[in-house]
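new request in #modeling-help
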Amino acid sequence: QVQLVESGGGGVQPGRSLRLSCAASGFTFSSYGMHWVRQAPGKGLEWVAVISYDGSNKYYADSVKGRFTISRDKSKNTLYLQMNSLRAEDTAVYYCAKVDLSGEFGILYGMDVWGQGTTVTVSS
Amino acid sequence: QSVLTQPPSASGTPGQKVTISCSGSSSNIGSNYVYWYQQLPGTAPKLLIYRNNQRPSGVPDRFSGSKSGTSASLAISGLRSEDEADYYCAAWDDSLSGVVFGGGTKLTVL
């Protein structure tokens, strides 16, 4: 079955960096775009970034643009989120999610499968 | 302030029908598919409705979605205690070049 497993979360000081990973299995990873979505404590869902199936297109929320980088490694079936210059407001559970539709236009569609999430805490 | 507008709360008694609305604009709901997610306390979001009105396998037919113009709605009929959760709508936004979510609706089964 389709499975997404995030890792890499933890506690970090403001201004430092962290890299999240999302290991994918049960589907053809290289055919689907992938999203990162986060949820601050007690708050709603906030979209972070998306990468197309082939890595050629990437889009970011304004709140993370210039600080976060989404990438993927098809040989490892893994999605990444490199987070630099972290701020207290980046504290959240980070979820990776697979897009609903394969191929070129998939990133215009929503997410169907979500991982269990990994927690990032930014605090001094 | 979320781009998509949902009521913060909704409630109903077991067996009742509840509808949750999601209001957007021409750049998101008006031109792209709407998705609905259910999030039980302490768990990851789960897909409930995709592409406006499609139910994934395993989702009971008590859940249904619809879309008209720049608004969408999620209907839950035959309300059950296990439906108590947070519900989110989402859609791609052409102007923002990203996914936008509603603020979420907390459903209480009285």
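bot summary: Chain B has a mean pLDDT of 97.
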